[in-house]
Amino acid sequence: MGTIERFWVKLSCDICGEEGVSAVLDKDSGSSALDWRNLRSLSSFDVATRGRQSEVISAMCRNCGAVASVETAYCNHRPEGF
């Protein structure tokens, strides 16, 4: 059994300034199984992920339709700048 970690996702739109941050709990870091349901808190963005891995394929801003910037980090606490 691995340690419990969080996969952090920060989305931002350079056009309208919308931003959102969410943490996806990885119950066992050795399993690579993430609970993507936590991304629901990023309601200003349409987010596409790949399977159960820690990968955000794309994010679109719902306010203006622009492609959002995606930043990710894997740690237990909220990363600096998120």
Topology at a glance:
Blueprint: E1 5-12, E2 19-26, E3 45-49, E4 56-61, E5 69-75
The number of helices is 0
Q: Largest sheet, if any? A: 3 strands, antiparallel
Order of helices and strands: EEEEE
Structural class category? mainly beta
- Helical proportion, percent range: under 10%
Relative strand content: 35-45%
Strand order of the largest sheet: 2-1-5
* Average pLDDT figure: 84
Radius of gyration: 13 Å
Low-confidence stretches: none
Count of beta strands: 5
Account of the protein in words:
This protein has 82 residues and is mostly beta strands. The protein has one domain. It contains no helices and five strands. The protein has strands at residues 5-12, 19-26, 45-49, 56-61, 69-75. The strands form two sheets. It has a three-stranded antiparallel β-sheet, with no helix packed on it. A hairpin with a 6-residue loop joins β3 and β4 (56-61). The termini are far apart.
Task: List the keywords.
single chain, 41% strand, mainly beta, 3-stranded antiparallel beta sheet, two-stranded antiparallel sheet, 82 residues, 5 strands, globular
Summarize the structure.
By secondary structure, the chain is an all-beta fold.
